[in-house]
Specification:
heterodimer; A: 341 residues; alpha/beta; Alpha-Beta Plaits; 2 domains; four-stranded antiparallel sheet; B: mainly alpha; 78% helix; globular
């Protein structure tokens, strides 16, 4: 019986440097220069067995390079990658056997083959015994609702169907670790929800370790137990989504929809201890009234005071909303960029 | 290992068959390509075939049609290999499926071998169709020695596919196939005597022709297929082909592994 490692993925001092060519126009003379780019900079990361881990970062932050090093497509300049206890540099084949990877989405399967032919092909490449493969392929097709179309050419599938196929292709050899690179990108909301449900099931019912990258913050927030945010090649935050929001998130924000206002409301709000910032602005011609955005340092003590102060200053509150800190806020706060930048 | 190679070969053949244009091309091309050389030969032979005497003396056979179809078919074998095997990895890269293959636990060179095996099987069909067309449509006469023919074909396979695999790796690296294919096949087209006897070439060109494995494959196949030559008569050609086959297979493997290591280091497998 094979022993199961405590950590599904271990990154130690993982570094990747590339040499890029550029044009230098110093003193009016153009010449080609080489410069070194550090894409991943001494990243240490432990992903526990059975964990649902999200790796987030803006474009060019080092996320894709890290993923490619984990799945043995790219050699690190320094440091070590271990997947399911196997060293990616010395046991690349064993790493690939224990890793199911969804890269390139729907383009990672052959469109001139049927779903079944694709899965049979990749099962053979992963050396899954023929009888085992047959049963597993039927089960996977059933699970993603492709059984009825299993023998149609993939070129006749919708994007969502192809993405589902690409996902089960990554699972055809039943790996304990799944690395899913933007599995819901380009899908309609229903198709994306189906994929998310499937991934959630793989984690909760089958105990798969899942490493997810996504451009959708809500997706990461919903699915991941822990999130690593990478920027400029370094992991700059690593924690559960709730903890990230608590530690790195903005202070609570109160949105007041005011029917009426007097000149005294804004200064009165500013004067409340615990209010860090106030912005009052007209709501526009259609809605009428005003909107006050009030940043608070402490919600419990400051909220009642804010409401009372507005009333006392002659303002009439139509609606009150506490704006929750999102992962997107955390991300922007940490990187200064949105995920799609 | 065998299963992985067979799976790749099967995939290649199934995809090939799903492009009807490719299949039709493979059926038409063998008969079409030699025609321009055949008609050029008839024109050059003169109205009463006066030039045939000179041709027979230089080529060692009066069967000029057979002489041409063997030469052109051998060249087409190489040409098709460069286009199909040679561009296979690049096509996978453009399609987006290369990484799916590279991520599997099978050694990557097996994928290359599977592609070569599929092409070899395709070419056998192409060859059989070609022979039928040559005999039935063009009236070409063959006088084969089966053992010698088999030996000549068997010893042509390693160098053709060794070159194809090296080519595939280089195309993956440089991301450009056309210029490389035109250059390599052009050299073989001019120097290997596909439609004329090598003996008519100037001395310096004959010297180069002697180092090209295609020249030896064509010579051996012409002797075996048209002249019923025994193995002993092919010995010099076959010995050269054995060495060339070994060398180019090794070159194919080494080039593939080197490019794989390089792309692994630079990450260029993901660059289109």
């Amino acid at each position: 019986m094979s022993t199961q490692p405590a950590h599904a993925v271990q990154l130690e001092g993982l570094t990747k440097r590339f040499t890029a060519r550029g044009i230098d126009e110093n003193g009016g003379r153009r010449r080609t220069v080489r410069r070194e780019i550090i894409a991943v900079d001494h990243v240490d990361l432990l992903i526990r067995r059975g964990e649902f881990f999200g790796l987030l970062g803006p474009n060019g932050a080092g996320k894709t390079t890290t993923i490619r090093m984990i799945c043995t497509l790219l050699e690190p300049t320094a440091g070590q990658v271990r997947v399911w206890g196997h060293d990616a540099a010395k046991e690349a084949s064993a790493v690939r056997r224990n890793l199911g990877v969804l890269l390139m989405g729907e383009r990672s399967v052959y469109w001139k083959l049927s779903a079944r032919e694709n899965l049979e092909y990749f099962a053979a490449l992963y050396q899954v015994p023929a009888a085992t493969a047959k049963a597993r392929i039927s089960e996977l097709l059933e699970r993603v609702g492709l059984t009825a179309r299993a023998d149609d050419l993939v070129e006749r599938y919708s994007t969502g169907m192809r993405q589902r196929l690409a996902l089960i292709k990554a699972m055809v050899h039943d790996p304990p670790v799944l690395l899913l690179d933007e599995p819901t990108t380009g899908l309609d909301p229903q198709a994306a929800r189906n994929i998310r449900d499937l991934i959630r099931h793989l984690h909760s019912s089958e105990g798969k370790t899942i490493i997810l990258t996504t451009h959708y913050m809500e997706e990461a927030d919903q699915l991941c137990e822990r999130i690593g945010i990478i920027d400029y090649g370094k992991i700059i935050a690593l924690d559960a989504p709730q903890s990230l929001k608590r530690v790195h998130g903005e202070r609570p924000v109160l949105r007041l929809d005011l029917e009426d206002i007097t000149d005294g409301v804004e200064p009165a709000l500013r004067a409340i201890p615990g209010v860090t910032r106030v912005v009052v602005q007209p709501k526009g011609a259609n809605g009428g009234g005003y909107e006050a955005i009030v940043h608070l340092s402490d919600l419990r003590e400051t909220l009642p005071k804010a409401v009372e102060t507005v009333s006392r200053a002659g303002g009439r509150i139509r609606h009150l909303q506490l704006v929750e800190t999102t992962l997107e806020d955390v991300f922007i706060g940490l990187t200064g960029r949105t995920l799609r930048d | 290992m065998i299963r992985a190679i067979a799976a790749v070969a099967r995939r290649e053949i199934v995809i090939f068959l799903r492009y009807p244009g490719w299949v039709i091309g493979a059926l038409v091309w063998p008969a079409l390509f030699p025609l321009m050389y055949l008609f050029a030969s008839r024109a050059l032979a003169g109205p009463q075939g006066e030039g045939m005497e000179t041709f027979t003396r230089v080529a060692g056979t009066a069967n000029y049609a057979g002489f041409i179809v063997v030469g052109t078919t051998a060249w087409m074998w190489l040409n098709m290999t460069l286009w199909s095997v040679g561009t296979s990895l690049r096509n996978e890269q453009l399609r987006g499926t290369l990484e799916s293959n590279w991520l599997s636990s099978s050694p990557r060179f097996l994928v290359m071998l599977g592609i070569a095996a599929a092409h070899a099987m395709n070419f056998i069909v192409f060859l059989l169709v070609g022979v039928l067309e040559f005999v039935l449509i063009l009236g070409v006469r063959f006088n084969p020695n089966p053992t010698a023919t088999l030996a000549a074909v068997a010893l042509t396979v390693p160098w053709v596919y060794g070159l194809g695999m090296a080519f595939a790796a280089l195309v993956l690296l440089f991301k450009e196939a056309q210029a490389m294919v035109f250059f390599v096949r052009g050299i073989f087209l001019v120097f290997a005597g596909i439609s004329f006897p090598v003996a008519v070439l100037p001395d310096w060109m004959r010297g180069i022709a002697g180092w090209l494995p295609l020249t030896h494959s064509i010579e051996a196949l012409r002797l075996a297929l048209l002249e019923n030559a025994p193995l002993s008569l092919l010995q010099a050609n076959l010995t050269f082909l054995a060495w060339a086959g070994g060398a180019l297979m090794i070159a194919g493997y080494v080039t593939f592994q080197s490019v794989d290591r390089l792309t692994h280091r630079t990450g260029s497998v993901a660059h289109h």
